[in-house]
């Protein structure tokens, strides 16, 4: 006999992290190729000397710094153990068995996991042409039982960002008592002038909650710190669902110092964006149908050839992130790693074209 566990856990997919193997180049987890920003490691090490103490429960200094940078009151903020941790808190604030949570698919693989842990039903809405989110379909999927809609922009793993007009129309279509989470994990990498910036919609939509992270542009993936920006009532509920002392003192100090290094952060993100443009344009020239990307990765629609393509990349020393029978997500890395990837992608595409006698991979 084993203890009776919740049946809801049975069909929860296991989170699959991007592979990491010694000696291979990791382009599988959307990490920042740069080390921590200047001054951040020193401050984290200094904080580590206090590891016999609990961290500041309210993360007051970090919240204050975020409020100042974002131009929002402190009571609009909640921090947590990475934005996935914050998302789990958010889902707990609204969803329980009998409720529905609507989200796009294919999108961030944590979404169905955190929803099912709360026992709520998942409503996955297919992407539209160009691997973009279908905001009309997302709004249309809302029912009386819907408590939450997740919107990912730029969308992981496909890349396109939600446009301002479509987001405005979407927010107008969703009932005011349904929470909308706008997951902006890659917001710092967005360069499209028409892309929606969640901060512009907060004042007019109290049911909107933004989700942001230090894991990507700030390069603190290993320290686990992210945050939500929301109406004070929602932000307070999110804070209630936090694991006490979840965000370590080391993470809080590293995040504060990182926020004070905006210029260095922007320079690094600019370098990644320049590489992203170069990689996407080269792939298009090779013949790949790569969707728009406003993030730090590209999406290759390799279809049923996905495992074979990932294996080919691995033979070339590159770890990418395959999504079986759909495609591969490839993180933008250092220039020479991107070159190695482009060479592999070009060779593969030509090879497939010869085999299939067609325009290339599915
Ligand atoms: C990487 C990512 C996150 C951030 O995860 P953390 O828990 O903050 O490391 C959140 N949402 C999306 C869509 C992501 O790709």
Describe this structure in words.
- It is a single chain.
- The chain has helices at residues 40-48, 60-70, 82-94, 110-117, 135-140, 164-173, 232-240, 249-259, 262-286, 306-315, 335-356; strands spanning 25-26, 77-80, 100-105, 121-126, 146-152, 179-183, 208-213, 226-230, 297-300, 318-319, 321-323, 327-331.
- It is of the alpha/beta class and 362 residues long.
- A hairpin with a 3-residue loop joins strand 11 and strand 12 (327-331).
- The relative contact order is 0.16.
- Residues 30, 82-84, 108, 152, 156, 183, 185, 213, 215-216, 221, 226 line the site of pyridoxal-5'-phosphate.
Summarize the structure.
Belongs to the class-II pyridoxal-phosphate-dependent aminotransferase family. The protein is of the alpha/beta class and 362 residues long.
CATH names the topology of the largest domain as: Aspartate Aminotransferase, domain 2
Number of domains: 2
Terminal-residue CA separation: 48 Å
Query: What is the total tally of β strands?
Result: 12
**Mean pLDDT over the residues:** 96
User: Which architecture of the largest domain would the CATH scheme give at its second level?
Assistant: 3-Layer(aba) Sandwich
Strand order of the largest sheet: 2-8-7-6-5-3-4
Oligomer: single chain
Shape: globular
| CATH class group of the largest domain | Alpha Beta
Per DSSP, the total helix count is 11
- Report the sheet with the most strands, covering strand number, pairing sense and barrel closure: 7 strands, mixed
Uncertain runs: none
Tell me the strand percentage band: 15-25%
The fourth-level CATH homologous superfamily of the largest domain is: Type I PLP-dependent aspartate aminotransferase-like (Major domain)
Helix and strand element order: EHHEHEHEHEHEEEHHHEHEEEH
Integer-rounded radius of gyration: 21 Å
Helical fraction: 25-40%
Helix/strand-derived category reads alpha/beta
Small molecules in complex: pyridoxal-5'-phosphate
């Amino acid at each position: 006999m084993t203890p009776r566990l919740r049946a809801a856990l049975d069909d929860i997919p296991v989170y699959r992290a991007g592979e990491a193997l010694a000696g291979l180049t990791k382009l599988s987890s959307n990490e920042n190729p740069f080390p921590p920003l200047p001054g951040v490691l020193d401050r984290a090490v200094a904080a580590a000397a206090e590891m016999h103490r609990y961290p500041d429960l309210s993360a007051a200094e970090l919240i204050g710094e975020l409020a100042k940078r974002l131009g929002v009151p402190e009571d609009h903020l909640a921090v947590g153990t990475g934005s996935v941790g914050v998302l789990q808190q958010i889902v707990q604030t609204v969803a329980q068995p009998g409720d529905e949570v609507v989200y796009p698919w294919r999108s961030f693989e944590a979404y169905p996991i955190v929803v099912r842990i709360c026992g709520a039903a998942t409503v996955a809405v297919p992407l539209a042409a160009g691997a973009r989110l279908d905001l009309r379909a997302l709004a249309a999927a809302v029912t009386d039982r819907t408590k939450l809609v997740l919107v990912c922009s730029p969308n992981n793993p496909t890349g396109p960002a939600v446009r301002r007009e479509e987001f405005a129309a979407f927010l107008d279509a969703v009932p005011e008592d349904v929470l909308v989470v706008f997951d902006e994990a890659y917001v710092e990498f967005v360069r499209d002038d028409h892309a929606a910036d969640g901060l512009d919609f907060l004042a007019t939509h109290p049911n909107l909650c933004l989700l942001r992270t230090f894991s990507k542009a700030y390069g603190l993936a290993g320290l686990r710190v992210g945050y939500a920006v929301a109406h004070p009532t929602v932000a307070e509920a999110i804070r209630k669902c936090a694991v006490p002392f979840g965000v370590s003192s080391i993470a809080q100090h590293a995040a504060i110092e990182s926020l004070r290094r905006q210029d260095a952060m922007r320079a690094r993100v600019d370098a990644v964006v320049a590489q992203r443009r170069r990689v996407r344009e080269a792939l298009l020239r090779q013949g790949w149908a790569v969707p728009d990307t406003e993030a730090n990765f590209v999406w290759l629609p390799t279809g049923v050839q996905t495992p074979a393509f990932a294996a080919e990349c691995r033979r070339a020393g590159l770890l990418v992130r395959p999504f079986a029978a759909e495609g591969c997500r490839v993180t933008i890395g250092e220039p020479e790693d991107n070159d190695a990837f482009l060479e592999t992608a070009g060779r593969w595409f030509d090879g497939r074209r010869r085999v299939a006698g067609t325009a290339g991979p599915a």
